[in-house]
Structure formats: structure tokens, C-alpha cells
């Protein structure tokens, strides 16, 4: 974990952290710490002892931010969703506007979650601008890098997370882009000792202070769980085997494959990209318009029929067992494909096959 903190950019890898069952729990840990940092009395006295708290996150962020607020008794209505631009990135000016608005209503802003690699578009929020706003208003800045955090391993792509070193905490899931077996999610925290004071219960029958070994290795009391997997062991073994350069190579390859897919379909007949420009992550979002939909002039009917295309093609993919690509709507956009490449064993030939298979399975629609 020290090495991961060094890669984030925290001086000498100082700080703290814990491995959790997944990014959703890591994000909840961050919110828990942010609340405790601002109002430590909440640990003993509960939510009745603190004012009305509000958190902020992008409208394209992961649902776990709201789920964490619900679990911690803060409430989903206290999570304010900030507008994103056409590429899915949080708009900093809207963030500051909503923070000021919340303060004017008597609420206390305590937590901002920026996303590094959104689930659908693979967008990276502008971390430097968000960090400036958090510093100005004295708010905990968290970076949900569950999906995009591993780009820090790549010298070619880590610029997309510029400003992450200014965050108070970061979620990073090696079980995603680094291909570590499930489950392996880390919550990294810049302030050392905060997790311990926030979560410890000092149960004397487990956490004796006179053990014969270095107590810093006994992480149990700073976790919410009692029994836990040794998730860090899988990551340590892979890191020893592949090295940082090995992880970098596989991440770069996945991004190269996604760019190859984008370049193949952006001007290909029957395909339309969901947003303009090269994707920032491996998420390639597009519509496939079969011949029966492609030339329709009635726009309402065209969108109605296009909405049904991706679910049918995906169902056929699963029936044939050839490939599988996710789809979803987003805002006012009808169902589109979201091809995400995270398997370093994939090849350019696999991408070519995917394109041909989509066309084969959708030709009669």
C-alpha cells in the first residue's frame, strides 16, 4: 500500500489504507472518514450531534456514492449531483455553485467525490480544478478511481489523473484494469492514523497492545469488518511476477485496443459514436444502426427502434456464445453499446471479429 501511495504522489508514500470487498465499500470508507474528520463526535453520539451534511458527486458517478450515504445515515437526498459535460466530466463551475448554494441554505458540505474513469463513458473529472474548489471551501476531496485509478501505472496515460495527489483519499481497484482476481480494492488515505481513530473499538480480546510483533501490521481494528480476506496477497504476488513495467504494458495494450476499435468504427457505415473524440479510457460507446433502422427518416420512430437494437444483439451474442458487450441508455440517449476492454489477452483480431459479429447478428433488424 505504501507503493500505491507513492504512485498517487503522496510524499514518501506516507498515509494509510485498507483493502475492502470492492469499490463501493472503499468509497463508503472515504465518506465515513470525511464525516469523522469534520465531526469526530459523530462516532459516539451519532448523526443527531451533527448539522445537516451534504456531499457532492458527478451525475455520471457510480451509484455507490449514494448507497454509502444511505448506509451511513446521511441520506441519498444529501448527495448533490453535479452536471457533467458532453464527455461525462464534472463541470467545476457547477460544483462551486452548488457548494455555495448549500451553504446559503445552512447545510455543511463535507465531501466531494471526483471520478477517475466513469462507469459508462470512462471519463476523468478535472481533478486539479476540483482540488482548488475543495481547498477553498475546506471540503474532503475523494477520488473514485475504482475503474481508472490503474492508469497511474502507465507513464503514457497517468496525466489523466493529474491532481490526484491533492486528494484526501482515493479508491483504486486492482481487480479491474490490473486484472488481479476478485476481490481486490484499496482505499488509500493521505492522513495517517485517521482510519484507526475513526473505526477502532479497542476490543481487548482481539487487539492486545502487548503482542510480541509490530502492531502496525495488525490492521483489523481500523476496518469495519472483523473477518477479512487477505486481498493484498494476490496483488503482491502479481506485482512481484509482472513488475510495474508489466502492469504498465498490459494497461497500455488495453487502451491501444480501445483506440483501434474507435478508429475502426468512427467512420464505418452503420455506426455512430455516442460522443465526439477519442475515448479517454477503454470505454468505447457507440450505436449500431442495422439496415432496417439506418435509413429511416422519421426521427422519433428511428430512436424508438434503435433503442431495441442493442438488447436484441446482446441477447443473440449470449445465445451464440461468441462475445458479450454491455449496453445501457444514458440521460436522453437511447440504448447504446459500451465496449470495455480490460483483458490484456485480447487481440486486434478479436476486435475485428467483434465488429463483424455485431453486423452479422443485427443485419435483419
Structure, described:
This protein has 365 residues and is an alpha/beta fold. The protein has two domains: 2-215 and 225-229, Type I PLP-dependent aspartate aminotransferase-like (Major domain) (Aspartate Aminotransferase, domain 2, 3-Layer(aba) Sandwich); 241-362, Aspartate Aminotransferase, domain 1 (Alpha-Beta Complex). It contains eleven helices and eleven strands. The chain has helices at residues 2-8, 23-38, 42-45, 64-71, 92-104, 127-137, 194-199, 231-265, 291-294, 299-320, 348-362; strands at residues 16-20, 53-58, 79-82, 108-115, 140-145, 169-172, 185-189, 271-273, 283-288, 326-330, 333-340. A seven-stranded mixed β-sheet has the order 1-7-6-5-4-2-3, sandwiched between helices. Helix 6 links the parallel strand 4 and strand 5. Helix 5 runs parallel beside helix 6 and helix 10 crosses helix 11. The longest helix is centred in the last third of the chain and has 35 residues, at 231-265. The chain is globular, with a radius of gyration of 22 Å. The N and C termini lie far apart (50 Å). This is Glutamate decarboxylase 2. It is a peripheral membrane protein; Lipid-anchor.
